[in-house]
Amino acid sequence: MKYLVFIITFLSVSVYGVKCFAAKAMAAAAPVQQHAANSSLLLSKSLFFGLSALGGGLAIGLGVIGAGVGMGNAVRGALESMGRNPGMEKKLIVWMITGMAIMESLALYALLITFILFYANPFKSIFLK
Q1: Which one is the CATH code of 2-127: 1.20.20.10, 3.40.50.1110, 3.30.1490.20, 3.30.70.1140?
Q2: Mutual orientation of helices 32-84 and 2-27 as an angle, nearest 10°?
Q3: Which of 4, 49, 64, 104 makes a 20 to 30 Å CA pair with 31?
């Protein structure tokens, strides 16, 4: 529950920032005659890039948090097991490192999703016509 408040606060501040950025970008647009024609295009571009940044940040943030918690639990469990049965240390270390490699790959997938949202967004052609 404590983290939910932080997440909601972060999202509301991010949405407000995107809205302010879009408003400033529209205010700095070309002359008054062209302003009406360009405002919807400028707003869609601003929202597209702002929400892409927000989605990328959330993807990497939540992905790394999940992988970090999983690795911490794996190490804790392996150390508790080694403390109870020291003879199984070699087998436990092999399986712990294998599991941690899989968890680290999940963090790398989150990084990949972030890079896709930033640099190779598949929705770019739809929103930026």
Answers
A1: 1.20.20.10
A2: 160
A3: 49
